[in-house]
Write a structure and sequence with these properties.
Radius of gyration: 22 Å
Number of strands: 16
Largest sheet: 7 strands, mixed
Shape: globular
Distance between the termini: 36 Å
Strand content: 15-25%
Length: 472
């Protein structure tokens, strides 16, 4: 079911890619040659890397197996221009459509920081961006890939393997199979009440059932001729000691870090948009615990749920003036979301949004009719959580320093998306992504400040610039 949904968005040009970027400190000059040598091992571990879409331009796409992967298709090097940052490069990558025909649905893009271009010392900074089509992997698949890549690099280093002789045309293994479609791994029972509610939301005329409360969600959806596809990216980095503070405070209040971050978004928007009567948040989560699929696999097994923030919650936020009142409203909002999340997880896979997909006969038509209508959500928050490098001897030449998770603009989705990921004992990266002109930059600024100010707010300190940094 999901295998038909995601290509439909690519056909319409409204969603291109997911990118999970790993940032390394390296001491190797020929990183492209070294990474090419790692590709055969990655193909053996992750079958989706060997696939392409057959009839990918139709409503009935299928997976085909590539006989070979050309390293020139999946390895790319980009140079930073003067004053350019990672966020700008990720914007460019997200805006690139996938080539047609039997081509891989992924690539690795290597980017050295400007100060590292002519310096291959141990302090050189190299970004390795895994760019992939959502049809072959969810966000957690990006972590699984980078963990596999780091294991391959460590293994080559320990064996003293010479990467000079890896061919550009790499044969794909014939003894691998894709994970079964999600509908073959579990069932998604729907109650009549849930199904009828969704049908009425989708098709019932407003004069019959009344119009639902309108939540703020930026500009309405527009055709790509009216509002061209252009991704904007803002990266906020929260330092390790501040991350520890956030996690500790969340546990003390019986909520998750995602709940706290969600509350920070709601609070920032409530103050910034005093006329807004409600918000709607969309939260993706993984179905792997239901299907039994390992976290080490590249698959797309994501779903999501919606949370409405009515006017009473927003008023409770807006009336807070002192630090103590702001903290009280923050934790109240976090607890509200946390209860919603626990309820959703408790009933999963019953009454799940994925269970509605069999009723979508034509995915392309399903998305096409959304043009010109209100957006489906105020925001989406997708937190991949923690990347734990595999145990073993640490690499002397490849040191994983941080990760960044981004999604492309979503012309038919939420007004903006917050994407989170962190590396064990390292920083937390929160990337805000949105379609250019859909949301005013001062609103994005307010959300970003909500994140950067959060650690100091929790510690009852005056708001300062310390503890977090931004990349535009």
């Amino acid at each position: 079911m999901l295998e038909k949904l995601y290509p439909a968005r690519a056909i319409l040009g409204v969603y291109n890619s997911v990118i999970v970027t790993a940032t390394y400190h390296v001491s190797v000059k020929s990183e492209d040659t070294t990474l090419r040598a790692a590709i055969p091992g990655l193909l053996r571990q992750h079958p989706p890397l060997c696939c392409y879409l057959v009839d990918g331009h139709t409503a009935e796409p299928k997976f085909g197996r590539l006989q070979h992967v050309d390293a020139r298709d999946v390895l790319q090097t980009l140079q930073f221009q003067q004053g350019e940052h990672l966020a700008g490069k990720l914007q460019e990558l997200h805006d690139q459509p996938w080539p047609k025909g039997p081509k891989p649905l992924w690539k690795l893009v290597l980017m050295r920081e400007p100060q590292s271009m002519n310096d291959c010392s141990v302090d050189s900074v190299l970004h390795i961006a895994l760019v992939y089509h959502h049809v072959i992997g969810d966000g957690l698949s990006g972590i699984a890939f980078h963990q596999s890549l780091l294991r391959e690099l460590q293994a080559m280093e320990q064996k003293g393997q010479n990467p000079q002789h890896t061919p550009e045309l790499i044969s794909t293994p014939t003894s691998i199979n894709l994970t079964e479609p999600i509908e073959q791994l579990t069932s998604f029972p729907l109650s009549w009440m849930f199904l009828m509610k969704k049908v009425l939301e989708e098709y019932a005329p407003g004069w019959l059932f009344g119009h639902p409360t309108t939540f703020w969600a930026g500009l309405p959806t527009k055709s790509l001729d009216e509002l061209p596809y252009r991704t904007r990216v803002r990266i906020i980095t929260i330092q390790p000691e501040k991350v520890t503070c956030l996690i500790k405070a969340s546990r003390e209040h019986g909520v998750s870090l995602t709940s706290l971050l969600t509350a920070a978004i709601a609070s920032a928007l409530a103050f910034k948009l005093p006329a807004a009567s409600s918000f709607l948040g969309l939260t993706p989560y993984t179905l792997r615990r239901v299907t039994g699929t390992s976290a080490d696999e590249m698959v797309n097994q994501s779903t999501g749920f919606e949370t409405t923030y009515p006017v009473d919650i927003l008023d409770n936020i807006r009336k807070s003036s002192s630090t103590a009142e702001r903290l009280a409203s923050l934790w109240a909002t976090a607890s509200y979301f946390h209860r919603q999340m626990q309820s959703e997880l408790g009933k999963c896979p019953k009454d799940n949004l994925v269970g509605l997909l069999p009723y979508v006969i034509d995915s392309v038509a399903f998305y096409r009719k959304k043009f010109g209508k209100a957006r489906e959500a105020t925001w989406e928050i997708s937190n991949l959580g923690l990347c734990k490098p595999s145990p073993g001897l640490p690499s002397k030449t490849w040191t994983l320093d941080s990760m960044t998770f981004t999604q492309g603009a979503q012309p038919l989705g939420s007004a903006f998306t917050v994407n989170g990921v962190s590396v064990q004992d390292k920083s937390l990266a929160l990337a805000i992504t949105w379609q250019d002109r859909v949301v005013d930059t001062d609103i994005i600024d307010a959300v970003a400040r909500g994140f950067t100010d959060l650690p100091d707010l929790l510690q009852h300190k005056e708001l300062t610039e310390g503890g977090a940094t931004e990349s535009h």
